[in-house]
Amino acid sequence: MENSDASESKATARGGVNRVLAKLELSIQSGNYYEAHQMYRTLYFRYLSQKRYDDCLELLFKGAMRFLVNEQYGSGADLGLLVVDTLEKAKNVSDYELWIQRLGLLISKINPNIVERETLLARSVKWSSDVSNNKMGHPLMHKLIAHMFWTEENLEQARHHYLLSRDGTGCGKMLIQLSQSKGYPSETDLFIAQVVLQQLCLKEKSSAVQTFETFTKHHPVIAASEPPFKMPLLNFVFYLLKLIDTGKLNIFRTLCDLYKPSIARDPSYEKYLQKIAVFYFNAPPPQSSNNSGGGLFADLINQFFQGFDDDDEDNNAASANTNAADVDLD
């Protein structure tokens, strides 16, 4: 008798969901996007209560895409945030790279002027960080975001995300455009040197090599793959990348002394080179630093994760208001 009651209850719930889905479809077709949005949120709460995470994710993603195609950016962004919320609650997502791709697609479809896009971007990076155990966020997430900013010609933001993407080829090509649009020809070497040193501090040597090779080979001011380059700083970076595999601290220090005038052009290089000496040449940590690398890019993490508590409070309040006005499924 209990099994019969349970089956009847499930059938009733399915019938209620199907009625809302049918009504939702009519709302979309008639252009009543507000009503459709409310019904998506109603289904979201119902699916979550039943722990139907896969169904919930598919519903929300497809709904968000439909809103965005119809230029309903606020509603699309809101459903995107519910996708992240569902991914966080589901915890064990079998194909998380698929959802990284999908989140990247959603973010790219939202108008850059929509405030919620930045919130979705930050929460997506944070989720990708948690699911991949990469404190900076999954490299694929950064690659997708970097490419989006590049296509929007927001080169500074593209540079930031390419730095964490492990896509040296894309990073090098973007830096060429950045240096040509934001700097003088005499500053060309500064653009690539800073990024390569930062990548090395992130222990991304292969990305650093790829970025440098792409930049120097294709940049019209340089157009060379090997030294001697006309710009001494480029020669320094080239030899540094070759020297890292040897681990010879004395030669590293000699190289730094030799190119000291070029290195001194940017005061931040000294900090990076101190970290590189510790990471790759077994140098003792500088006495003024208690941490050989953990704090160097803490600002990158803070940019993504600051203010999440406030966002969560706002989202919870919005959810509560919507929940109170949910459509009756039964």
TrEMBL record:
It comes from the Eukaryota. Keywords: Cytoplasm, Transport. One of its GO terms (biological process) is protein insertion into ER membrane. GO terms for cellular component: BAT3 complex. The keyword Cytoplasm applies. The keyword Transmembrane helix does not apply. It is found in: Cytoplasm, Cytosol. PANTHER family: GOLGI TO ER TRAFFIC PROTEIN 4 HOMOLOG (PTHR12875:SF0). Belongs to the GET4 family. This is Golgi to ER traffic protein 4 like.
